[in-house]
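Whether sequence alone determines local backbone shape is best considered at the level of individual chains. We regard such an encoding as a compact summary of how the chain folds. The sequence in question and its structure tokens are set out directly beneath this paragraph.
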Amino acid sequence: MGKGMEMEERKEEWGCSSGVEETLTVFRGSQNASLIHSIVALTLWLGAIHFVVALVLTALLFLPFSLALTVFGLLLVFMVIPIDEKSKYGRKLSRYICKHACGYFPLTLYVEDIKAFDPNRAYVFGYEPHSVLPIGVVALADLTGFLPLPKIKVLASNAVFYTPFLRHIWTWLGLSPATKKNFTSLLASGYSCIIVPGGVQEPCLMEHGCEVAFLKSRKGFVRIAIEMGRPLVPVFCFGQSQVYKWWRPGGNFYLQFSRAIKFTPIFFWGIFGSPLPYQRPMHVVVGRPIEVKQNLHPTVEEVIEVHGQFVEALSDLFEKHKARVGYADLQLKIL
């Protein structure tokens, strides 16, 4: 575990009817890390979208036509050039980002039962909410080193992997396209997968002042977990919705457009209007694994039953921990 990470383990009563004292393992991003290093790490990690937009606008508005074509040509090259996901320098850069990003907010990870996770098994983590960007997933990345799982991938929209510069950084960080084929292949290879079930539609439904999880119709990840016989794990991140300010248009056309391009065009900004997020504490809570019985051809009823267990577990996780992390009055809407 790097210098930017700290761990403590403590026992607390959660007010359950049995009154049994349970172990809660807590990992914290160290606030002793250099602020300059943290800002550099976050700029590399999250600034690519703003950089590409600024580059495109500059080319369109200020550059001669020939230079603008050159810029667009270079961007096209960076959209399709192959990426070595095991690049020595890419992984080194990713470790730097993971190490210093956690201490910036700071980010704290709570695991209800860390002994329930077997390093030799693969799990399906259902992470909520999406918010503007689900940046709290960095707490679960293999390079961060908090969880005792050696192989972890974060599944993201295909649009990420066609965005110049962003696709390189995020691939090195352990992100992978959220396709069914890729999902099942990773699980079969022993990788635990982190997925945001609400996908690109969830930011279209965000509301100020409460959390929204677009879950009721999202059953595909549950079906795959059953087919592969992998436990489902509910995860909720408190505070993630506070690190950016945002605005988006409304209406059905906007929702349909976002679905078509597999990306949510949303206006968001952090400190001084930059991509640097506000320093607001984030708390990622990992629930207990939900064991599922493998069935290569699950019925609709089986999928609905397990999906209901996951939604209930996520809701319970939210209610159980929201006061602990300073959000006692926060409400969760499951749509």
